[in-house]
Amino acid sequence: MKPLAFVLFAVASGASAQSMDPTFVDQKQAAQVTGEQIFQHICQGCHMPDAKGAVGAGHYPALANNPKLAARAYPVAMVMGGRGGMPPFGMLLTDAQVADVVNYVRTHFGNHYTDALTAEDVKPFRPPTPTPSRGH
């Protein structure tokens, strides 16, 4: 996996300078990154700091008070695979980081879904790693 700081810088390159910090975290600190930090450095660039979404160059749905977040699988699938204009983040984040950011969004911004996800809950959403084929 690429160093998380580089990944976050690359993903956030379209975000405002204020919401982006390319020194956010280095690989040694990646395990300590919180769901709130992931939201702040990846998600809020499009969904806005208050998670109310935006319309302009694109449509960025509100995460605040979002009843779709009641189904735990929905936000996990969106973060892992993306959809429409949202890029997939599954290849950039660990299962634990996906669970952390989904749990953060589901318990903040007027959302009160407290059935927390774990890395094990996220694992089934990750495509299997392709095995190298052996020549005949």
Write up what this structure looks like:
A hairpin with a 3-residue loop joins β1 and β2. The chain has a single domain (4-125), classed as Cytochrome c-like domain (Cytochrome Bc1 Complex, Chain D, domain 2, Orthogonal Bundle), CATH 1.10.760.10. The protein has helices at 4-11, 35-47, 73-81, 95-106, 119-122; strands at 54-55, 59-60. The protein is built from 5 helices and 2 strands. The chain is globular. A two-stranded antiparallel sheet has the order 1-2. Mean pLDDT is 82; it is low at 1-23. α2 (35-47) packs across α4. The chain is mainly alpha-helical and 136 residues long.
Rg, nearest Å: 15 Å
- In the CATH scheme, the class would be Mainly Alpha
Low-pLDDT segments, ≥5 res: 1-23
Strand order of the largest sheet: 1-2
Beta-strand proportion: under 5%
Number of domains: 1
Integer average pLDDT: 82
Q: Please outline the major beta sheet.
A: 2 strands, antiparallel
Short description:
With 136 residues, this protein is mainly α. The chain has helices at 4-11, 35-47, 73-81, 95-106, 119-122; strands at 54-55, 59-60.
Can you give keywords for this protein?
mainly alpha, single chain, two-stranded antiparallel sheet, globular, Cytochrome Bc1 Complex, Chain D, domain 2, 136 residues
Please specify the SSE layout and strand pairing:
Blueprint: H1 4-11, H2 35-47, E1 54-55, E2 59-60, H3 73-81, H4 95-106, H5 119-122
Antiparallel strand pairs: 1-2
Helix pairs in contact: 2-4
